[in-house]
């Protein structure tokens, strides 16, 4: 794997190409969002507005299929994550640029963000106490296993995205060196498909984890209510 270059330092902190590329993508998405939403029309939407509404509609449908109770709660986070990952994964097809998701530090940061979001949405849905109770369900003996599951799936989330994007860029580079400039043309289409698939998988897994955290506490709450009814 190619070493990540440090471009400059802010005190003891080294700013790598991954950091610069990540912030550049975030700035680009912010500018595009602001410009694209300046002249929205309800009666006669233009081509750009129609395309944006199609993208947002597809995201809302995907989230609603997974979390029909509260899709509006998860659409902003999951939708932003999907869009960012699509752009970040596709950056690698531009000559002299590399996908920031080919760096384990970025994929780890995204996985940690998903990890924190699972607990944030879970606690926000029905309170801290009710959320934490599901770690003791069906028995307090399951607590260590729940904790191991939380950390292992976060690690797997980071490594999966990093491994697929980094290996794809490495394969394109090796074929380019061995076979010349014409052979990698079909690999360009493969890169686009793989970038879209990996973004979808990462976002879907994040959605599954968050929805699972919310639904787990709802199940725990229902069980507590059933027990209290039996005791009465």
Automatic annotation (TrEMBL):
Q: Which residues cross the membrane?
A: 20-40, 73-94, 106-123, 161-182, 188-211
* UniProt record, GO biological process: proton motive force-driven plasma membrane ATP synthesis
Q: How is it placed in the membrane, per its record?
A: Multi-pass membrane protein
Q: What keywords appear on the UniProt entry? A: ATP synthesis, Cell membrane, CF(0), Hydrogen ion transport, Ion transport, Membrane, Transmembrane, Transmembrane helix, Transport
Gene3D superfamilies attached to this UniProt entry: ATP synthase, F0 complex, subunit A
Alphabetically, the GO molecular function entries are: proton-transporting ATP synthase activity, rotational mechanism
Q: Name one GO cellular component term.
A: proton-transporting ATP synthase complex
Compartments annotated for it: namely: Cell membrane; Membrane
Similarity section: Belongs to the ATPase A chain family.
Its annotated function is as follows: Key component of the proton channel; it plays a direct role in the translocation of protons across the membrane.
Tell me the protein's name: ATP synthase subunit a
Its lineage reads: Bacteria, Pseudomonadati, Pseudomonadota, Alphaproteobacteria, Emcibacterales
């Amino acid at each position: 794997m190619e070493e990540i270059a440090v471009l400059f330092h802010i005190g003891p902190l080294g700013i790598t190409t991954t950091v610069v590329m990540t912030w550049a993508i975030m700035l680009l998405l912010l500018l595009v969002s602001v410009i694209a939403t300046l002249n929205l029309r309800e009666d006669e939407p233009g081509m750009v507005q129609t395309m944006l509404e199609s993208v947002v509609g597809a995201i809302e449908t995907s989230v609603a299929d997974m979390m029909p109770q509260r899709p509006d709660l998860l659409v902003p986070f999951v939708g932003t994550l999907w869009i960012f990952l699509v752009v970040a994964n596709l950056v690698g097809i531009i000559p002299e640029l590399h996908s920031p998701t080919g760096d384990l530090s970025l994929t780890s940061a995204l996985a940690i963000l998903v990890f924190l979001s699972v607990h944030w949405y879970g606690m926000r849905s029905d309170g801290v106490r009710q959320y934490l109770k599901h770690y003791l369900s069906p028995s307090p003996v399951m607590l260590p296993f729940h904790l191991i599951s939380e950390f292992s799936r976060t690690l797997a989330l980071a490594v999966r995205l990093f491994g697929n994007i980094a290996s794809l860029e490495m394969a394109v580079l090796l074929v380019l060196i061995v076979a010349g400039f014409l052979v990698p043309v079909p690999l360009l289409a493969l890169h686009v498909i793989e970038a879209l698939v990996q973004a979808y998988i990462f976002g879907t897994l994040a959605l599954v984890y968050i929805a699972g955290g919310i639904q787990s506490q709802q199940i725990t709450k229902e069980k507590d209510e059933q027990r209290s009814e039996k005791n009465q």
